[in-house]
Design brief:
Layout: H1 4-138
Coiled coil: 33-60
Organism: Alligator sinensis (Chinese alligator)
Subcellular location: Membrane; Mitochondrion
């Protein structure tokens, strides 16, 4: 059997040992918590860096797209302006061709009218000559 004093000493040793284990557990928990907190901070920093990179990429893509759109708009405007210019040139050419055609038709009408008038004059002249001839032969 164990005496009461030995029992108390053993109890105190056990309690001391339990206290040491508790302290070790608290230290271990704190160190694990600190490690987790440090890792969490590290992950937060990495996440912020990734977020910044993504935002930079998005901004770059937006800027590139805006630039491409503006360039395309400018190109389309230039093409539109060029086509309008060509259209105006074609219209003026068509108007000029119509004017030339009208002048040619007018000249042709005048020539026809002149020829018809000349033929009428010649016909009248021949009629008069025939009448004179007939009158001369009848008399």
């Amino acid at each position: 059997m164990v005496t009461k004093v030995q029992q108390e000493i053993a109890l105190q040793q056990i309690m001391s040992h339990i206290g040491g284990v508790k302290k070790d557990m608290v230290i271990l928990e704190k160190s694990e918590f600190s490690a987790l907190r440090a890792e969490n901070e590290k992950i937060k920093l990495e996440l912020q860096q990734l977020k910044k990179q993504v935002m930079d990429e998005v901004t770059k893509l937006r800027t590139d797209n805006k630039l491409d759109l503006n360039l395309e708009k400018s190109r389309v405007k230039e093409l539109y302006s060029l086509n309008e210019k060509k259209l105006l040139e074609m219209r003026s050419e068509i108007v000029e061709l119509h004017a030339q055609q009208d002048r040619a038709v007018t000249q042709t009408d005048r020539k026809i009218d002149t020829e018809v008038a000349g033929l009428k004059t010649m016909l009248e002249s021949h009629k008069l000559d025939n009448i004179k001839y007939l009158a001369g032969t009848a008399a």
